[in-house]
Design a protein that fits this description.
By secondary structure, this protein is mainly alpha-helical. Helices cover 51% and strands 9% of the residues. The strands form two sheets. It has a two-stranded antiparallel ribbon. A two-stranded parallel ribbon has the order 3-4.
Length: 127
């Protein structure tokens, strides 16, 4: 089982990928009990993420629209270059629609990226 912080970030990421997650399925994805899942959901709520829960056979968890992940933290220049090269390759792949999708992805990465400290081309992590 992952440590609490990384598990909470994974939970947030999963909640952003689907509109609604049944509790048991989400707990299985995280490799935790449903009780631990409830605690992790509470932790996200304490951090200000609006997670709603519903009971019953159709119950589960979902993240309210507009909730966003924290900034993408790139630890060194090589990570940033690898990401840009990968997105650039996708844009030039010749697959229909990939160029626009890659440009949108790159825009999101640039907006959500930061690097601790200072340096050329990097924005502060504070939002």
């Amino acid at each position: 089982m992952a440590n609490t912080s990384s598990r909470t970030l994974k939970l947030l990421s999963l909640l952003q990928t689907h509109r609604h997650w049944p509790g048991l399925e989400l707990a299985d994805r995280l490799g935790v009990s449903e009780r631990t899942l409830r605690r992790d959901v509470d932790r996200l709520r304490e951090l200000g993420y609006p997670v709603s829960a519903a009971r019953g056979t159709d119950g589960g968890y979902q993240l309210a629209p507009g909730a966003v992940l924290p900034p993408l933290l790139l630890l060194d220049d090589e990570e940033a270059v690898a990401l840009a090269v990968g997105i650039g390759d996708a844009a030039q792949s010749g697959i229909a629609g990939m160029e626009d999708a890659a440009l949108r992805a790159l825009t999101k990465v640039v907006r959500g990226s930061c690097r601790p400290g200072s340096g050329p081309g990097w924005t502060p992590c504070a939002r």
